[in-house]
Amino acid sequence: MCGIIGAVxxxxxxxxxxxxxxxxxxxxxxxxxxxxxxxxxxxxxxxxVGKVRNLINAAEDTILLGETGIAHTRWATHGQPEEINAHxxxxxxxxxxxxxxxxxxxxxxxxxxxxxxxxxxxxxxxxIAHLVNxxxxxxxxxxxxxxxxxxFLRGTYGxxxxxxxxxxxxVAARSGSPLVIGRGIGENFIVSDxxxxxxxxxxxxxxxxxxxxxxxxxxxxxxDQHQNIVQRNEIESYxxxxxxxxxxxxxxxxxxxxxxxxxxxxxxxxxxKNGCVYxxxxxxxxxxxxxxxxxxxxxxxxTSYHSGMVSRYWWESLAxxxxxxxxxxxFRYRKSVVLENSLxxxxxxxxxxxxxxxxxxxxxxxxxxxxxxxxxxxFSSLVRExxxxxxxxxxxxxxxxxxxxxxxxxxLLLLLVAKISGLKNKTSLVEKKIVNxxxxxxxxxxxxxLQNKLLSKLAEEFSDKNHVLFIGRGEQYPIAMEGALKLKExxxxxxxxxxxxxxxxxxxxxxxxxxxxxxxxxxxxxLEKLKSNIEEIRARDGLLYVFTDSESGFxxxxxxxxILLPHIEKILAPIVYIxxxxxxxxxxxxxxxxxxxxxxxLAKSVxxx
Length: 609
Ligand code: F6R
Prior knowledge:
By secondary structure, the chain is α/β, with parallel strands linked by helices. The chain has two domains: 2-236, 4-Layer Sandwich (Glutamine Phosphoribosylpyrophosphate, subunit 1, domain 1); 252-592, 3-Layer(aba) Sandwich (Rossmann fold), CATH 3.40.50. Helices cover 34% and strands 22% of the residues. It has an eight-stranded antiparallel sheet, with helices on one face. The longest helix is centred in the last third of the chain and has 21 residues, at 404-424. It binds fructose -6-phosphate (F6R). The active site is at 2 (nucleophile), 604 (for fru-6p isomerization activity). This is Glutamine--fructose-6-phosphate aminotransferase [isomerizing]. It catalyses: D-fructose 6-phosphate + L-glutamine = D-glucosamine 6-phosphate + L-glutamate.
């Protein structure tokens, strides 16, 4: 979490830093700050609590002159979201912005206090500023000093350091948190995400783990973890600036929900031909590896974890390959057994989630057949560090609550199930069946989106509710979990999901006339079982909201609302049924007046564990 940006130019840089921070705000929005220095070494710093907008407003009344600068938008880890804790942090001539956590900061703090340094913030970052200042007294260039300081730090960092005595350069270091250099004309930048640099650069260099870089107006030096000078590939950006606009929509989340049919259509056009799946990213070596797969291990967090959970049903019922799925923060800290010929799959929108990345790194020492990531961000750490990668190509997702990245992960997972089934059994019809049935998915989701008025009306019934239960069976159970997560994170309503058969083992005690229960009930082989669960809730006066299709035989009454969705093949139902839940959460959040694109306490890219 936290977004950082630095620039060395031959023009005043404050506006570019502020614009960049707006694009990085999805990474954290508790407070924001910037610091610029001019060629005479005069420093101006401005920090504000809250969103970047507060900093921009304050900047309008402040003179911020300087051609070199650093800026930061914060997701608080150590210390409250107060101005004193906002970055950049300063130690005399040294200023620092930092994304990550310095785990041994208390030890370092105690040591630095003994050297006479005093601390003004509660952050872990301030120790970096003082440590660089202290080490600098032993001599050397800023680059050399930073290289000497890094071995003292335990934890994760993407950081940029400015020395006001040498305002012609910035030094950056990466370990665990992403950093990308943007090359300009006579100016250079360094940033957490290239999205923040589209107005000034299209040429990007991704730093690797352990890299330290020095940028000046006309020069870039990168050293690797052994302090050898290295060349890293330069990549031309493929993204258009308009892809980060809200367009005709009121919120990014709304836009991203409505983009789902188009995103899925694009995936199908580029990946399916004549009933077969084509992944141009996978070469013959990759196909040989996939053919050997006998077990799938999926590791992910949050919404991505839910898409993995849905896919488990597909792996086992369609491809007959055993699959287990685990939350990354659990997987990375336990000893687990690797089954023979297991493929390790990570799922992530951002490709930078710290726990998922750590799980991938751990898996490499464990004897898996190989690793494959399904990700939405090209060149992200997860993509670069996996043996194989499939891109969801959903376009930039800005709303903190994942929507289109979830459905596109599901589509890609289903295509992967089809592909591996085809590779393992050339006469199997599974691949063809999946590819053919997917063709109706975009139009089916279009039909669901037409229910927006009904769902916005329904949302009124949830606006005064403090608790909501979601239930489903089979593939709809993870959809219930994802629906509950959406409602929680953007409307701040407590929501819980259960496999419907579990109600009687405890949660039924919660049901009374004030408890809404959202039930995912497509017409499938589990419907009769689900109907019995529904009767158990009805008998205890629960308020029933049944998402179903016309063939399921439910009727509206005082206690029951029926939300009719198009009938769709069983395997596609989870991808369709999440869409009305996304919309419902969106409308509940609108009524509650939350900042739904940037819900409190959250950030889009979770780069700390
Ligand atoms: C919820 C949400 C989060 C993310 C989770 C993992 O709407 O977006 O739960 O799914 O933080 O992020 P990625 O997918 O980037 O690894």
